[in-house]
Amino acid sequence: MSLKSADPRKYPDPNSPPDYASSYYFILRRLLLCLSWLAASVGIVLGERAAWLTEIGVASFGLFVLLTLPRLRWDSLAILGMLGVVAFLLLPGIPTSADLLRGGAHILIFAALLPTMALVRATAMTMPSVHMTQQRLALLPAHAAASGLQIAGHIFGGIINTGAFALLSAAVPADSDLAKRRIAAEAAIRGMVSSAAWSPFFVAFAIGQNFVAPHYAWIAIGLGVVSASLFSLGSLLFLDRGFRFAKLAIALACMGPVALRLLLTLAAVLAAALIFNLTALSAVVIVMPVLVVIQMGRHRHHIRTIIHDTRTALDQTGDDIVIITSAMFVAFFAIQTDGIGQIVALFYVGVIPGWFALIAMPVLMMMASVVGIHPVITSTALFAVFSGGGADVHPALLVQSHLIGWGAGTMSSVASLSVISCASLYNVPARQLALGTNLGAGFGYAICGGGLLAVVNAFL
Fold first, then answer.
1. Contact present, 231 and 151 (Cβ < 8 Å)
2. Does residue 35 or residue 118 have the better pLDDT?
3. What confidence score (pLDDT) does residue 6 get?
4. Radius of gyration of the chain from its Cα atoms, rounded to whole angstroms
5. Highest mean pLDDT among 83-92, 240-249, 261-270
6. Of 150, 167, 137, 157, which is closest to residue 255 (Cα–Cα)?
7. Residue 20, Cβ neighbours under 10 Å: how many?
């Protein structure tokens, strides 16, 4: 069953008569989200001078959430229910209006990240270099197809996240049998989710740097290049019995048309962060729309397509925006009141060993994801316990441990957007993708990645 057929409220039949009430609903939601997006962007540039606009942005986003709640998927409602239980256990009372405003201002930047990435995905899909890479992948020989899709998913995923799946699925022949489609989907998922270890374009990185100083987060990205490379090489060696390095060369050659653009994009974000002293999240929110505008100016005939695809994405990503911002909202107040620390003190007093924190973070995130608990819940809770001196661990290593856990968890969960998207695009049952080859790969990634970080931490 495709995603579009799963919920007729969110994906109306294009052949049915227009539902004007529903149209106005989506228009209002878009306007509110765009206003929040604008407020967050201006707030990054002007800081306290734009406090009044930040307040408007918080109010707009609050209305957006209220309008989105009635149309959330069942799994999203389950996640929000779990967050509600966590909030009840951790928070001493109902936040005041002033507290809500402070919390809203804190998470407003997260409300801007997903729309920014929707705009980037829509733009990437119109670029000739991307289409050329897609064509090369479709022409890969059968013995190198899985390796090529994993590498392409990793590189594209680092910039356009789940948008990589739509691009890569088109490179799989339509007449492929179920086994080949499953192998292709599993490879694409492994590649995409593991790029979270080094990419500043993931919500996972935005969450991680929320708990440490910005420079530690950038160190974590450097570490992520190593851990992601080791996982990619290890998974290719273990899962592709006929793997040869010649296959790797063939797969990398497919990425030639987009390599320079991707490197320039990463360089632009890094340069903006260093020059203007921005966090990675703030740099992404500011820099990427500028790059999109430059691309639009060079290819004006694509402007209408980009706007249309971005608008469609904004209509369909409400669940993710609400879940992520809700989790960060609860985490903000939990840290302010030290609610998690008080619960942990009932079981363990003193500083937690660093090796335990680095291994427990990805493994617990992985295990929770398998049973349907979103990594955003597990990671924010564990960060609150281990960060800020709670564990004897280097902050950059802790962030990298979290990023490994995010990749491992989203690799093999039926509630993962990556798995759900690939199940639809590749026409493979989600349970086969979540509980098949990638289940073992995810556990191996979490345990080996956390263990390696624990060894590094012992020498720091």
1. no
2. 35
3. 40
4. 21
5. 261-270
6. 137
7. 8
> What's the predicted TM-score (pTM) here?
0.79
State which of 57-61, 75-79, 421-425 shows the largest mean pLDDT: 57-61
Match 């936040």 to its residue by tokens: 95
CB 445 within 8 A of CB 407: yes
**For residues 379 and 83, what is the distance between their CA atoms, to the nearest angstrom?**
12
User: Contact, 368 vs 377, CB < 8 A?
Assistant: yes
Taking the C-alpha atoms of residue 276 and residue 370, their distance in angstroms, rounded to an integer, is 40
What lies within 8 Å, CB to CB, of 366 at 6+ separation is 405, 408, 409, 412, 442, 443, 445, 446
Q: Closest by alpha carbon to 224, among 204, 194, 189, 201?
A: 194
**DSSP structural state of residue 411:** H
352 three-state secondary structure? strand
Parse the chain into domains and list their residue ranges: 3-458
pLDDT at 339: 59
The distance from CA 436 to its chain's CA centroid, rounded to whole angstroms, is 22
Query: Hey, what are 313's tokens?
Result: 């994405």
Q: What is the pLDDT of residue 446?
A: 95
Using DSSP, state whether 255 is helix, strand or coil.
Answer: coil
- Calpha distance 435→424 (Å, rounded): 16
Q: At residue 331, does pLDDT exceed 80?
A: no
Alpha-carbon distance 207 to 224, whole Å?
A: 15
Largest CA distance in the chain: 66
DSSP 209: T
Give yes or no for residue 15 having a pLDDT over 60.
no
pLDDT for 30-42, tens place per residue? 999 999 999 999 9
Percent of the chain topping pLDDT 70? 89
The residue-averaged pLDDT of 85-106 equals 80
Say how far apart CA 113 and CA 125 lie, in whole Å: 19
User: Which residues, other chains included, contact 11 with Cβ-Cβ below 8 Å and sequence gap of 6+?
Assistant: 3, 4, 5, 316
What is the pLDDT averaged over residues 33-61? 91
Rounded CA separation 280/269 (Å): 7
Q: What is the CB-side half-sphere exposure of residue 325 using CA atoms within 13 A?
A: 29
What is the torsional sign of CA 276, 279, 280, 281? Answer: negative
pLDDT score of 11 more than 60: no
Enter the tokens of residue 144. 């190198």
Is residue 400 within 8 Å of 227, Cβ to Cβ?
Answer: yes
CA distance 367 to 375: 10
Q: Is 394 exposed, middle or buried (0-12, 13-18, 19+ CB in 10 A)?
A: buried
- Using CA atoms, how far apart are residues 265 and 270, in angstroms rounded to an integer? 9
CB atoms within 10 A of CB 128: 9
Q: Please report where in the chains the tokens 């962060």 appear, as a residue.
A: 273
